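Reviewer comment 2.1 asked that we show a complete input and output for one of the modelled complexes. We chose the zinc ion case, as it is the one discussed in the main text.
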Amino acid sequence: MAALGVVDRALDGTPLYAARGELPIDVDEQRVQCHLCGGWYRALGSSHLSRTHGVTADEYRELVGLRPRHPLWAPDLIDEQGERLRARLAAEPRLRVAMAKGHARAQRGELQREATSRLAQRLTSLERERQLAVGARGSATAARQHSAGAASYVRWRSASPA
Ligand SMILES: [Zn+2]
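Response of the prediction step:
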């Protein structure tokens, strides 16, 4: 492992223990070096970066000149993650089928068609809602007319001689 020493500086003057723009990797130990303290870690996770240096992974990458989304893990961990995903896909045929299906359908434009027909359905149900609302208003009017009729009937009754 390389001896600790400030070898570079961030744009804001922060001393760096590794050159800006690259993440040192120790392939034998499978560790990556933290620019901010020079320590070697399996991964520069948020636990180290935020707890020790008070920065997020994105802030760290920006500070030390790494491109966005540059992996901050030892290469074998990255491989492992890829392997875990592959293993999961192999172990869960349904997931694999669903992913393949989604991909194939997207290619055939089926998803687009489905979205279009869902929109049509929504418009239809909106129309139905409006009709129902009109229907409800219609029966409310009928009810008012009915009670008006009843009222005039009552008036006529009370107006008639006892
Ligand atoms: Zn550090």
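The pocket of zinc ion is lined by residues 34, 36-37, 39, 48, 52-53 (CB under 6 Å). We note this here for comparison with the apo prediction described in Section 3.2.
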